[in-house]
Structure formats: C-alpha cells, structure tokens
Design goal:
Layout lengths: L1 H45 L9 H20 L6 H15 L2 H14 L6 H14 L3 H14 L3 H17 L3 H15 L3 H16 L3 H9 L8 H17 L3 H12 L8 H15 L2 H14 L4 H18 L2 H14 L6 H39 L31 H22 L3 H13 L7 H14 L5 H11 L4 H6 L8 H16 L4 H14 L4 H16 L4 H14 L6 H27 L25
Helix pairs in contact: 1-2, 1-3, 2-3, 3-4, 4-5, 5-6, 5-7, 7-8, 7-9, 8-9, 9-10, 9-11, 10-11, 11-12, 11-13, 12-13, 13-14, 14-15, 15-16, 16-17, 17-18, 18-19, 19-20, 20-21, 23-24, 23-25, 24-25, 25-26, 26-27
C-alpha cells in the first residue's frame, strides 16, 4: 500500500518536472527562433548599400523577430528569456528605422532590468538610436554611462567604434579620428582595431594628407586584419597614390598586384583603379578601353556596374554621346541593382530619356511652326524662305496671325508657346543635367531673341543674366536692363530685384496671357482683344485683369471706334476699379460716350418721324485720329 502511494507520488512528480521542461522548451524555442531570424537579419543589414534602405526580404525577417519576441514577452513574461526578447525587439525596431518605438523599448529594458548583464550593450544601441533621432546630447550621456559600466575590452572597443562611425558619417573627421584611435588602444588584438586603423588612413585621405594616409595604412598590419581588409588595404594604397597624382607609382602597384594570383579576388577592383588613374590623368581613350574590358570580363559583378557607371560619366562629360550614356547607366542597374551608383544611374538614365523626348517634341513643334509660316508666306510671297530656329525673330511676319483661313482650327499662340517651351526645356537639360553651359546659352540666347508670341522670354532673359553674371560676362547688365524694361511685372523681374512680393501662380498665368495680348496689340487687334478678355474672364481678381479691362475699353474707343463696346468696357472698369489712378478720366469718358449714344438714339427716333425735310444732325461719335505716342495709352 505504501509502495503504491510512493509510486504514484513519483509518477506525479515526474509529470510535473516534464511539464516544467516542456514549458521551458516552448518559450526557449520561441526565443531561439527569434534569435535565429535576428542573426540572419543582422548579417543582411551589414551588406546593405550605402543608402541604407532595407529590402523587402530584410523587413520580413525583422518583422519575424518582432513577432516572435512579442510572443515571448506576452506568453512568458517572467521567463529568463524575457529580457533577451525585449532587447531583440528594440534592436529589430532600430534596424527597421522605427526609432521612436525602439527608444521606448530600450528605455523599458533599462527600467525593468537595471542589473542585467546586457545593460552596457543596450546603452550602446540606445545611444545609436538617440543619435538617429538627432538627440546627440542624450546619446553621448548614455554612452558615457556605458563606458563606466563596461569592463570588457571587446565591448568597450565596439562602443568607441560606434561613436567614431557616427562622427565620421557626420563628417566630423577630427572627432572620428580620436575615437578610432581609442578603438586601436582598447581592442589591440581584435579585428575591430584593424578596421579602426584602416578608417584612420581613409580619413587622412579625405583630408588630402597622402603621407599621413600611407603611414597609417601601413600600421593596419600591426593588428589582426582579415583577408578582406588586407585586400581593401591594397586598393586604398592605389587610391592614395592616384588622388595625390602619383600616377606612375599607382600604375606600378596595380600591375604588380595583377600579376599575383593571390590577388585574384580583387583583380577587377584593381583594374577599375587603373581605369580611374587613366581618367584622372586625362587619358580618356585608355580609361574607356579599361572600363569596357572590365564590363566584359566581370559580368554580373559589382565591379562591372562600377565600370558601366564610369563609362556613362565619360560619355556624358567628354564624348557627349548621350545615347551610349543612357544605355550604360541602365546597365549599372542590370549588373548590380544594389550598386552604390544604382540610384544616381536610374535618375540619370531617366533624365537622358526625357532629353531625347524633348528633342523629338522640339522637332515636331518646329515642323508645325514652319508649316504655318510656309502656308502664310506662300499665300503672300512666292519667294518664301523657310523659317529656321536661327532666323531673326523679326523676320517672322506679324501679319501671319490675320490669315486665319489658311489654318482653320489652329491656335497659333499655343503652337508658338509649345515650341518656345521645348526650346527652354532643352536648354535647361543642357545646363542642369549635362553641365554644358555653352549649349544652354545657345538655346537661352535663341529664346531671348524671339519677341513674337514668346511666353518664356522673361525666363530665358533671367537665365541668361544669371549665367553671364556667373561668368563675369559684360553682357549681363544689358540683359538685365532688357528684362526689367520688357517684363516689369514678371516673377523673374521680382526675383532679380529681390522683391518680397512675387506674383502667385494664378497672377503669373494671368500676366503671361496679358503679355501675349500685348504682342498682338500692334499686329492683330482681334487677337489682342481675345487674350485680354481671357484674362478678365479667367483671372478677374488679378492685376493683369485690371490692365486688360483698361486696354479693351481703350481699343474699342480709339482703335475700333465701337461705341457700344467702348461704353460696355468703360463701365466694367469704373464698376470694378474705383481706386485706380485712371478712374476719374475713364469715368468722364464713360459719361461722355453715354451722352453721344443718347444723342444718336434721339436722332434716330426723330428721323423716323420726319417726312422729307432733313434736320440738322446732332453731335456724332467721331473717330479720333491715332496720334501714336502723343496720346497716353493705358
């Protein structure tokens, strides 16, 4: 009986122990899976391109770490793995870029586990997270706390290295040098010390101190450099010689390393350095041949992407072969989508593609303009001469717009505007995308010369002035004077004069239409009236609408002698702009014209009642002679 009871007790005890073990296994397995995903994520994170953007795969791994760490904290909050899980959760959030959430978790860890052995390491990462949030003062405070707590040289070296990296990334080179040296003093036999010494050499190269760079690079061998770092040392040495213009020494080192089978892993990088030496020397053909060979020998490797990038740059800046450059920028992405040149190559290829699209569009708009001009010229003159982009704009016959019947349905102003805009955008591409100032100048000068229906002439004059000013060209001041005189209300004039009040987009659109109307004023009054009225109807609350209303009233009165319309527009002006300087004058004219209209109506009614005897005529609406400059126009 007693034996049976004892056996049952043993059995119950065994089941209890097994339950505890199974429970421990469950949360250990959950934590173990989180740890495994985390290690994989850290490895992938360390291989990210310079832009630091995490990939979808990496994000998925980090999400798995966060999910499994949360499971441990939710299901087993009192387990001995909870603090590890919380640390992984904070680190994974940091890698994802969720710095505010990561900060909360780091602070939660420090509050819950102040005696944990992980505290020094947590303080390191907490400081890094604070730095990302631009809270540098608090970051350094936490790092100083960590330094006081760390007793392990390996961890201390890692902390110094972290501080040095953050200073280096902020281009605070002297501070970075100080902490990298701290790493070499603390780490000594560790690989991280060799990395720090290599970084010191790189910083001196950035500071253009080749002698100090070479001296510190040689010191790397005193530590424990990895094979990877030894390869980087050889490449950095050639880079130092190249940047200090010691080209022959650089070529000698490169050729020596290329003849050594032990350097096979970096042959492609050495050849790339050789191409860069030729490039820096100005031996463009040799550089092109070298880069081209790399793209053939090392297909699918990062060095091939780098070579394609250099080829594209050569074709952009030296050979001016934009078609080849576009293909080569695109090949950078094909060879290595994670290349440090990937983002720039993508945008540059898009810029060139857009440039070719603009050129094609320019050809189309020029054809339209040429066809319209030819139709008009052939109707008037059998000796018609084709209008080219280089023609003097004054040669364009202003009477062209009157011949509406030759091209029904064509908005002449729109055709010309599209053509001029294309010219400007091509010039803009040459200036901003390709850095070809002379080509840009040609297009801006062409645009500045055209006064006929040109909506971007003010912008072209402004660009010309800026380029001339930068080049200290004596033509800057005449161009500035022309812009101020021809476009007193332009936003570019306002910018030139540093005026605080610049036209809004709506006001500028109204002003652009007003300027088109002004250009038609001397050649085609009907078209001028159409554009003035567009301003009034579409942009009624703008300064351009006020000026347009004045001009419409004036033209109907003094040019077209249309009494009804003149009265109508004088009334519109006086009703809407009572504070204008011309208000009193226009009001008096309005009243005078109303009197004339009343007299004419009375005369008409009187004539209908008379039989055969004609009566003396009342005052009539007599057209006034056009006195040109003698009469003030609005």
């Amino acid at each position: 009986m007693n034996g049976s009871v004892f056996s049952k007790a043993i059995l119950i005890s065994s089941f209890s122990v097994m339950g505890v073990l199974l429970s421990n296994c469950a949360y250990f397995n959950t934590y173990y899976n989180a740890e495994k995903y985390f290690q994989d994520a850290v490895k992938e994170y360390s291989n990210l391109p310079p832009d630091g953007k995490i990939t979808p795969t990496l994000r998925k791994k980090l999400d798995a770490v966060i999910d499994k760490s949360n499971n441990v904290l939710t299901l087993y909050p009192t387990s001995r793995w909870a603090e590890n899980a919380l640390y992984l959760l904070a680190r994974a959030s940091y890698y994802k870029g969720d710095y505010n959430f990561a900060r909360k978790k780091f602070e939660e860890f420090l509050n819950l586990y102040p005696q944990s052995k992980l505290v020094p390491e947590v303080l390191i990462w907490y400081g890094r997270n604070l730095w990302k949030l631009n809270d540098r003062e608090t970051a350094f405070y936490q790092w100083n706390r960590a330094i006081k707590k760390i007793r392990d040289n390996t961890l201390l070296a890692e902390l110094y290295y972290s501080i040095a990296e953050l200073h280096s990334n902020s281009n605070q080179l002297d501070s970075a040098l100080f902490y990298y040296r701290k790493v070499t003093e603390t780490g000594k036999s560790l690989e991280i010390a060799a990395d720090a010494q290599y970084k010191i050499a790189e910083i001196y190269l950035k500071k253009n101190d080749a002698a100090a760079a070479i001296k510190n690079l040689k010191k790397v061998s005193q530590f424990s450099p990895s094979t990877r770092l030894r390869n980087q040392m050889q490449l950095l040495l050639t880079q130092i010689y190249r940047q200090s213009k010691r080209y022959n020494e650089a070529i000698e080192i490169i050729n020596d390393r290329l003849n050594d089978q032990a350097n096979e892993a970096i042959w492609g990088d050495l050849e790339l350095q050789l191409g860069l030496v030729y490039l820096d020397k100005g031996d463009y053909d040799d550089a092109q041949a070298c880069f081209s060979l790399i793209t053939e020998k090392y297909k699918g490797k990062p060095v091939a992407a780098a070579a394609y990038y250099r080829l594209a740059q050569l074709n952009m800046s030296h050979y001016h072969n934009y078609e080849h450059a576009q293909t080569q920028f695109e090949n950078v992405l094909k060879e290595d989508s994670k290349s440090p040149y990937a983002n720039e190559s993508r945008s540059r290829a898009a810029e060139i593609k857009r440039f070719f699209g603009l050129k094609k569009r320019l050809e189309g708009t020029l054809k339209q303009v040429t066809e319209l001009e030819r139709a008009k010229a052939m109707a008037q003159d059998t000796t018609f001469k084709k209008w080219e982009t280089s023609s003097n704009p004054d040669e364009v016959k202003k009477a062209f717009e009157k011949q509406v019947s030759t091209k029904k349905g064509v908005d002449t102003a729109a055709v010309y505007a599209d053509y001029y805009n294309c010219l400007f955008e091509v010039g803009e591409s040459f200036y901003f995308n390709f850095g070809e100032i002379d080509s840009a100048l040609y297009y801006y000068q062409t645009l500045a010369a055209y006064t006929y229906l040109n909506p971007v002439r003010d912008k072209a004059l402004f660009c010309l002035f800026k380029i001339y000013q930068e080049k200290q060209d004596e033509r800057a001041e005449p161009v500035k004077a022309e812009l101020l005189q021809a476009f007193p209300y332009s936003r570019y004039t306002a910018a030139l004069l540093n005026q605080t009040t610049i036209l809004t987009e709506t006001e500028q659109r109204a002003e652009d239409l007003f300027q088109i109307a002004e250009r038609f004023r001397d050649t085609n009054l009907d078209s001028a009236l159409i554009y003035y009225q567009r301003v009034v109807v579409n942009y009624p609350n703008t300064p351009a609408a006020e000026k347009s209303t004045m001009n419409i009233a004036y033209l109907y009165h003094h040019k077209l002698f249309n009494l009804e319309k003149a009265i109508e527009w004088y009334k519109i002006f006086t009703d809407n702009y009572p504070k204008h300087a011309y208000y009193a004058q226009f009001r008096a004219t309005y009243e005078q014209l109303k009197g004339i209209k009343s007299a004419l109506e009375s005369q008409s009614q009187g004539e209908s009642k008379l039989s055969e005897n004609p009566q003396p005529s009342p005052p009539n609406f007599v057209p006034q002679p056009d006195r040109g400059d003698e009469e003030e126009r609005p």
